[in-house]
Amino acid sequence: MRLHWTQHIVTLCAASLLATGCATVDLNEMTAPAATNTAQADVNVVERAAAKLKAAFTNKGFVAKTSRKRMRSAAKVLLNGLENKNVTASADDGYLATPKPISVVSADMSFAKQHVIQTTRAAEIYLEMAPAERSLRKELKDLEAALMAAKEAGRVFEASLNGANTTELVVYNKAVDDLRDITNEFGARVRVQQSEKHAKRTSSI
Fold first, then answer.
1. Residue 161 has pLDDT above 90, yes or no
2. How do residues 51-79 score in pLDDT, each as one tens digit?
3. DSSP track, the chain
4. Residue 74 and residue 84: Cα distance in Å, rounded?
């Protein structure tokens, strides 16, 4: 009788241990993807915001479908506060082809402004949270392209207003200036990183 109860207890203990082990594996498998998704979200937040801005502006006709190389080149000029004479409102065949009332242009500027603000906020948060050693070259390129699109859209909006200076245009341009400022901060961080790498290479020679 005692032997029977002993075998029964051993069987129950073994089953309990196996069940506990399986539960542990299942929980680990469930939590691992969540951690990975969080990391991916952190890495791509600026890229996603900039991509959404460029896609929305292109679909709405605010900007033309321009090569990334040309957009980055023009953005570098804009970042320095210079007027780029070679970059014009190239969406002429689209947005400017049909005259629009001020109310429509104002609504489009409000729509565009939200994308600019979202991109700026994403960049500000990312820059604040990013470790000093993390490379920001990819994010800088994305922001430069977004800034170029925002600037081009601003010129298109201004041309559509035919000289009318609306409050919405002033607010939109302010939002673009904020995007330019945070893009400059990313550029400054990248330059510091490059200088530090160069200094390390020089000292090791």
1. yes
2. 999 999 999 999 987 544 455 555 555 55
3. -HHHHHHHHHHHHHHHHHHHHHHHHHHHHHHHHHHHHHHHHHHHHHHHHHHHHHHHHHHHTSS----HHHHHHHHHHHHTT---TT---TTTTTGGGS---HHHHHHHHHHHHHHHHHHHHHHHHHHHHS-TTS--HHHHHHHHHHHHHHHHHHHHHHHHTTT---HHHHHHHHHHHHHHHHHHHHHHHHHHHHHHHHHHHHHH-
4. 7
Entry pTM: 0.67
Structure tokens at 56: 């929305």
Residues 152 and 18: their CA atoms lie apart, in Å, by 64
Phi first, then psi, for residue 131 (nearest 5°) are -60, 150
Residue 137 identity? R
In Å, how far are 111, 157, 160 from 194, measured between CA atoms? 37, 38, 42
Length of the chain: 205
Residue carrying the six token digits 């600026």 = 46
What are the tokens at 185? Answer: 């901060």
Query: CA 101, CA 86: separation in Å to the nearest integer?
Result: 28
- 145 — alpha (psi -120 to 50), left (phi > 0) or beta? alpha
Give yes or no for a contact between 142 and 72, defined as CB atoms under 8 angstroms apart.
Answer: no
